[in-house]
Write a structure and sequence with these properties.
The protein is about 45% helix and about 15% strand. The protein has 9 helices and 7 strands. The protein binds adenosine monophosphate.
């Protein structure tokens, strides 16, 4: 299964990608996590990406396309993958097509903007391994500590309400048109966000027939 997860920031793509990755036994590729690791490590790509990320803007397409090309060539991608947060623009989607990357389904998680702003205020992220939690919907076992690696959880700089609003504008302008792009290819499926993570997962399983 080669799956793209579409949806606004905070729609639950990362959370559902983890659920799907465990169920289907394929890796999740999150450009956001790759970029955050690069920023933390202070690599040239990280230095280039940081200011865009902090402003809630998209990192230039050529940077993302380079990252994806390298990552998809790795061995663990042979049996499929879940793309979380990429493509986010039409040129990125076109680059996948031009690179011969065949996608089975582009699944969009639909959620109202108001719900997102509210939800993002509770998100906590592990700066070391990228795991994501929510203080109410999906808390870590010990408050403030990552279940997976034990690091102290943080609030992403770009989860501040003003930046979230900018990210939503960017989403509607640059990423939402991808729904049409994949609909025209006959690959688009949509699922409405449900009150709980488990119910959204169930809706996704039904839609994907898994
Ligand atoms: P995310 O964790 O997916 O919400 O991504 C966090 C930030 O990383 C975004 O707001 C962008 O600044 C940047 N980013 C992640 N993926 C992409 C992408 N495919 N294209 C451009 N920018 C991206």
């Amino acid at each position: 299964m080669r799956l793209i997860l579409l949806g606004a920031p905070g729609a639950g793509k990362g959370t559902q990608a983890d659920v799907l990755s465990a169920k289907l036994n394929i890796p999740t590729i999150s450009t956001g996590n790759i970029l955050r690791a690069a920023v933390k490590a202070g690599t040239p790509i990280g230095k280039q990406a940081e200011s865009y990320m902090q402003a809630g803007k998209l990192v230039p397409d050529e940077v993302i396309i380079g990252i994806m090309r390298e990552r998809l060539a790795e061995d663990d991608c042979k049996n499929g993958y879940i793309l979380d947060g990429m493509p986010r623009t039409i040129p990125q989607a076109e680059a996948l097509v031009a690179g011969g990357v065949e996608i089975d389904v582009a699944l969009s998680i639909e959620i109202a903007d108001e719900t997102i702003v509210e939800r993002m205020s509770g998100r906590r992220t592990c700066p070391d391994c990228g795991a994501s939690y929510h203080v109410i919907n999906s808390p870590s076992k010990v408050e403030g500590v990552c279940d997976k690696c034990g690091a102290a959880l943080t609030i992403r700089k770009d989860d501040q309400p003003e930046v979230v609003k900018a990210r939503l504008v960017t989403y509607h302008q640059e990423t939402e048109p991808l729904k049409d792009f994949y609909a025209k290819l006959g690959k688009l499926k949509t699922v409405d966000n449900q009150p709980t993570i488990a119910e959204t997962s169930e809706a996704i399983f039904r839609t994907l027939g898994i």
